[in-house]
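dumping this here so i dont lose it again. seq + smiles for adenosine-5'-triphosphate
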Amino acid sequence: MKFPGRRQHRHYFPVDNKNPLTNQVNPSSNATQNYIVGIDQVLVDIEAKVDQAFLDEFDLHRGMSQVISDEVTQRLYQRLKDESLINYEFAGGTIGNTMHNYSVLADDRSVLLGVMSKDIHVGDYAYRFISNTSSRVDLNYLQSVDGPIGRCFTLIDDTGERTFGINAGLINRLHPDSIDESLIAGASALVISSYLMRTQPGDTMTEAAVKAVKCANAAGVPVVLTLGTRFLIEEEPEFWRDFVHKYVNILTMNEEEALAITGIEDPLLAANKCLDWVDMVICTAGKDGLYLAGYVDEVFKRESEYPLLSGEIHEFNRYEYSRPMLLNDCKEPMRIYTHSAPYMGGPESIKNTNGAGDAALAAILHDLSANVYHKNTVANSSKHEQPALTYSSLSQMSKYANRASYEVLVQHSPRLSRGLPEREDSLDQAYWAQ
Ligand SMILES: Nc1ncnc2c1ncn2[C@@H]1O[C@H](COP(=O)(O)OP(=O)(O)OP(=O)(O)O)[C@@H](O)[C@H]1O
Ligand SMILES: Nc1nc2c(ncn2[C@@H]2O[C@H](CO)[C@@H](O)[C@H]2O)c(=O)[nH]1
C-alpha cells in the first residue's frame, strides 16, 4: 500500500528531498512527525489448542473473553504445561496488538499507555511483552507497577474459535495521573477498547481511559473505540450506545459486537445505525470480509467505478470512492458505505483468526495518520481542500484492511512480523484495481 509516511521508499511527493541551497533535508519534515496513542491492559497471550471438555472443566464460556481467578489460572496453566498444550507465549492485548501492527505497517511511532512491572527478569512475562513489541512502539510512557502484568489464555478449539481467560495481574492499575494530556492532545488518534471498562473495585483503568478520551475530545483528536467482545456489550448495551455517542469518532467491531450494540443482525444495517452516533464505522464480518461506513460532504462525494452493490441498502457502495469526513465538517452530509470480500477470497488454510480484526484497524489507522502526515508536510496541497479524516477513499481502505487481516490469518500470532510486501506498493496491482 502506498501513501505518505515513513513506510515508503518512494513518495507521491518529494517531502524528504534535500534543499538544493542548503544541501539539508527539509527541516520541517522532522518537525511534522505524527504518532498515535493507544491505551491497553498489558497482556501476554498464552495460546493452546483445547477441546470443549477442557473449557467445561475450567468453566470457560466458548468464544468469550472472561476474567479468571488466580486459583483457576494456576490449575489451568499447570494442565497446559503438563500436557504440553502451549503453542506459544507472545505479547498480546487488543490495543497492544493494534499499536504494534500499526508501527509495523507504517514504520512509524505509536505510543502505548498501560502498566509495566517494575522488576523485570529475563524470560518473564513483562520481558516477553517488551521483547515481542516493535521498537517503533514507544513504551516510555508506561506506568510502572509493583507486580505482574496480565496473562491471556488464548484457547483455540477445533473450529478455530478462540476463548480468552484473563488473569489480570495489575493491568487495570493505570492511574489518571499517568495520562499525559499534551501527549494525547498532540496525537493523530487515541485508540481504546471496551475491555478498559472491565475492572474490579480499586482499579483505576476506567478513570484513566475516560480522562484520556475527554482530553482527546477537547483537542479534536479522533477517538477510536474497538468493542472487544460481544458479551461485554450485551451486558450493558445502553451504556455503550451512550458512551459511543458522547465520546467516540470511529467505532470498530465485528458483526457479533455490531449486533450486540445495535440489535441489528445485518452488518451493513448495523454499521448504518452506528452512524447515528459516530463519524465512521469499521465492521469486520469474518469470511464475509469487511464493511466501512462514514460521512462525506455532498461537494466532495466521488462515485465508484466498481459495479454497484445492493444489500439491505440499495446501491450502498455508490460513493465508496469518497474520503470519509467528520460529520461536523460536512455542510451537507451524506452517508457512504463500502464492502470488500476477504483478500484473495481468504487464505487456503487459516492458521488462526485471532487478531484479524486488530490488524484491519491498524491498516485504517495507518491511512488516517498518513493523512495527518501529508497535511503537516504539504499543507497547501489541493488534497486538503477537503477536510477529510483519511488519506484514501473508503473503498481503498477496506482493501488495505482486508489485506492486513489476511496476513494475520496465515500466521499463528496476532502480531505482524513485517510490513506488507514492497511489490504491492503499486495501487495498480490486480487486487487493488478490482
Ligand atoms: N474465515 C475467513 N475467511 C476469509 N477471511 C477471513 C475469515 N475470517 C476473517 N477473515 C478476514 O479477517 C477480517 C477480520 O475478521 P473477523 O471479523 O474475524 O475479526 P474479529 O472477530 O474482530 O477478530 P479479532 O477480535 O480476533 O481481532 C475479515 O474482515 C476478513 O478480511
Ligand atoms: N486488553 C485486552 N485484550 C484482550 C482481552 N481479552 C482478549 N484480549 C486480546 O485480544 C487479542 C485478539 O484480538 C488477543 O491477542 C488478546 O490478548 C481483554 O480482556 N483485554
